[in-house]
Amino acid sequence: MRSQExxxxxxxxxxxxxxxxxxxxxxxxxxLEALEGVEISFKAxxxxxxxxxxxxxxxxxxxxxxxxxxxxxxxxNRWLSVCFYDALIxxxxxxxxxxxxxxxxxxxxxxxxxxxKEELLAYLEERLSEAYQRASQEGS
Length: 140
Known about the structure:
Blueprint: H1 3-15, H2 20-33, E1 39-45, E2 49-55, E3 66-71, E4 79-85, E5 97-103, E6 106-113, H3 118-135
Antiparallel strand pairs: 1-2, 2-3, 3-4, 4-6, 5-6
Helix pairs in contact: 2-3
């Protein structure tokens, strides 16, 4: 992550009041950072979204494998939308929403979190690992 992106991320976290959504974001960030060699970027669009993105180092077909968005239309009531390319994950419990063209123009599977839900977070950590593994096969 570039230093400016890291500073923007730290600013978000510093100014984000404690909440279940913040705790869920921190947990997903930690899970993303634990993936070997993952390339992380952060895009801040205050009032719209803050977007944490993960890319596998061997991935050339797509610019990312996960987008963890903090929805910021109401900063006092932020929530998360975690999106994967539909082709990179399974959803055996059917907890995600299929979004045609929803991730950079490709079909996506998105999961909304308004609270810290242990079962859903564990499920999303599994999806992170799955998408990371499948993205590793997207070399040139």
